[in-house]
Specification:
The chain is mainly alpha-helical. It contains three helices and three strands. The protein has a three-stranded antiparallel sheet with strand order 1-2-3. Bound molecules: zinc ion.
C-alpha cells in the first residue's frame, strides 16, 4: 500500500502544511523529527507544475496589462494573481501526493532538538 502521509522515520502524519510549505516534493521536512523527506515518482508532478507556472505567469502578465500606467499598482496585481493562483495549486498537489505517491526518507533527522523550533510549554 502506498503511504504518502506518514513519515518513514518516525511514523507520524506529516500533514498538508509541511508539503505546502516545502514548495517542491523533494524538499519536505517532517514536522515531528525533522527528517528530510520526498515523494517517489514525481516527474509528472514537476512537469505539471512547470506548465501551470507558465500559465499563471502569463495570466498575471495579461491581467496586469491594463495597470501598466500605474507604477505602484501593476506589481501588486501580478503578485496577487500569482499568489492567489498558486495557493490552490499547491494545496491540490499536496492532496494528490498524500493520496497517490510514496513518501520516502531522504536524509536523517536534524541533530538539533525540535527542528530548531521553540519548545512548547509543557513539551520537551
Ligand atoms: Zn518524522
Amino acid at each position: 500500500m502506498v503511504d504518502g502521509e506518514h513519515c518513514p522515520s518516525c511514523g507520524k502524519d506529516i500533514g498538508v502544511w509541511s508539503i505546502f510549505s516545502a514548495g517542491l516534493p523533494n524538499r519536505i521536512f517532517c514536522p515531528h523529527c525533522c527528517a528530510r523527506l520526498g515523494y517517489r515518482g514525481v516527474r509528472s508532478v514537476y512537469l505539471f507544475l512547470s506548465v501551470v507556472l507558465v500559465g499563471v505567469v502569463a495570466g498575471a502578465f495579461f491581467t496586469a496589462l491594463p495597470f501598466l500606467d500605474s507604477p505602484g499598482l501593476w506589481p501588486l496585481v501580478v503578485a496577487g494573481v500569482v499568489f492567489g493562483s498558486w495557493v490552490p495549486v499547491e494545496l491540490a498537489i499536496a492532496a494528490f501526493l498524500r493520496r497517490n505517491r510514496q513518501l520516502v526518507w531522504l536524509d536523517a533527522p536534524a541533530p538539533e532538538p525540535n527542528c530548531g523550533h521553540p519548545v512548547e510549554p509543557g513539551g520537551r
